[in-house]
Design brief:
alpha+beta; about 140 residues; seven-stranded mixed β-sheet; about 35% strand
């Protein structure tokens, strides 16, 4: 039986979850069928595990703040002829318990057991805390 694994990725240049959502609403950030996508240079070796219920967890301002279920991985050939991977996800961001994460290059695998929990349905509708406050609370273990 194939396990599930997630991907964790920095959302570079994003100040908050709303900013990531706004970026994903642009045509540049969407696949031909309108789903949000993120193009990366490396193709995941653990593709089957990712496509078995994995999500992309977004790090914003040093904190994992939200996730999106991954639908598929699309091949994209750039103008330079190099093969890349488009991580295509379901529209909409699911907020998760704020979890500090150090900066890193590219993306990393995130085992399902280590993934932050989703906020409750009631918390999803609350206004998000400022990233600095979220990080400070996460640093002291308050989620």
């Amino acid at each position: 039986m194939t396990k599930c694994v997630n991907i964790v990725k920095l959302s570079v240049g994003t100040d908050d979850v709303a900013g990531l959502a706004a970026w994903q609403d642009t045509r540049h950030a969407q696949s031909a069928d309108g789903y949000p996508r993120h193009i990366t240079r490396m193709w995941p070796k653990r593709e089957a595990e990712i496509l078995n219920g994995g999500s992309i967890y977004w790090v914003i301002k040093g904190v994992i703040q939200c996730r999106q279920p991954i639908i598929r991985l699309d091949e994209v050939i750039g103008e330079d002829g190099i093969r890349r991977c488009a991580i295509v996800s379901k529209p909409g961001l699911i907020r998760v318990a704020a979890t500090p994460r150090r900066a890193f290059q590219g993306w990393r695998y995130l085992p399902a057991d280590d993934a932050p929990e989703d906020l409750t349905a009631g918390q999803q509708d609350e206004e998000a805390l400022p990233p600095e406050l979220s990080r400070a609370l996460a640093d002291i273990g308050v989620r």
